[in-house]
Each structure stands twice: as structure tokens, then as C-alpha cells.
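Reply to dn_fold:

You asked what the input looked like. This is it:
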Amino acid sequence: MSSHTVLLFTLLVCFSVFPSSLSSHPSSAKKTGCFKVNNCKCIMKDGSGGINLKAMGDADGFLGRLRPVKVDNMPDNTEMLLTFSPCQAFTQPDELTGSDCTGVAACLNVRYQRLNRYINRYISFGRHEGNEFRYNDTLKILSVSYFAHNKQPVTVVHYHCNPNESASFIRDQSLRAEEPLHIWVESPCACTNACAMGDLGLGTIFLIILSVSAAAYFILGSCALRPFRSSGGVQISPEHSVWCMICYLCTERRPARRHYKDVTHCEG
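and this is what came back:
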């Protein structure tokens, strides 16, 4: 076999191997997961959209209020009631600000009967500050961990993307010894870009203010100006005298009043 034949054979092998490896690289390098923007929102790392937890609560921001939680080996005279808000911090009870459930995301109310009267104990089961987001692309589940006073999560909420549902609701919840409280939520808002409500960003607010200011400038200026035609067309921007008159009225109004009061005081 000649040297030219060997070289040609080597090139064919290289070209047949490299394209397959190059085509498989982008799929393996595809970014997955969810990047946390704030305590209530995350954006997909692949740029497909975002998920806003604020859209999952009711009108008051709650996803569940005083829901019974079943615990193994719980006494007959004791019940546990869970209140959870995915985005809005709350205090429970409302009139007791010094309780453990002050500014929390989840609160567990342990109610038991003693001497013919009910005793309530409120336990914090996580805050919004410092929560962690994890997204499962295969199951379409966003898991958010809420922490209390230590580094271990006390509540983990699993938001499942369910476009067939019209509203968000808690499907199940589980609390076991030495494990965090797990909550499973079915929600159409857990799908990317499904619910567009939420807080406005600074950029959006700035654009709104800029647009309103520009519209007011041209509308008020056109009304205050006598349009005339010239070689440059119709002038629609206000004349300098209009703005000078407005500034003069704003700056001279208060000093004139003070001067009037001083004069009347001297005459009296």
C-alpha cells in the first residue's frame, strides 16, 4: 500500500469520527436547571422562560391556610394545621407579633387540648429569605427549599407543571420525623411563561415613566403653542417661553405669599 493511499484512508477515518463527536457535544452541553432571580422568581438557564411563584397564591398570597397535616403516632387530642404562602411573608397569629411565626413562608400550628381548653403553639417552617431553587427538566418540577434557623431545609415545596389545571392547589403534603415537610403542588403557573403576573422590574418602570413624560411634553406643548408653517415644517415642540413661564410661576408663587404675610403683619 502506497503512502498516498495510507494518507487518504487516515483522512476518511478522521472525517467520519469528528462530525459525530461535534454533533453530540451541543446536546450534552445544553444548560438545564433554573437560575434564581429573587425569592419568588427563577429563569431557565436555557433561556426558554421563567417561573413566578407570586402567581400561584390566592388574592391574599396564600396557597393553603390551616390545612390539616397527618403525622404518624400523633395523639388523638392533637392536630397540626399548616399555613403556606409561596411569596408573601405573613405572621401567625396576626395579633401576636412576637411568635415564632413572624414574617415566615410556612407556619405549623400545633393545637392540643389540656384541661378542657385548647392550647396553640406556632412553629416556623421556613422563610422566603435564602430559599433555594432546583428544577427537574424531565419531570417539569420546580423544588423550592425553605430554611428556618439552621442550614437544613424545614420545608420543600415541589411545584409541578400541569397545564390542564385552571388554578394552583396543594395535592399532598408529608411530615415525618427527622425529615423536612414536603408539599406537592399542581399548578399551571409552574410551566415556563405560563402566568405573566408579577412585580415590574426597574427597567419597565423607567420605560413607562419615560413614555408618559414624552407624551405629556408633546401634547401640552402642542396645546400651548400656536403652530406655524415654515421651511422646516410644523413646529410641535413648545417654545422656550412656555417652560420659562411655568418655572417662573412655580418659583415665584411661595415667596410672593410670604411677602404678603409680612406686609400684613407690619401693618397690624
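Residues 202-267 form one domain.
Hope that clears it up.
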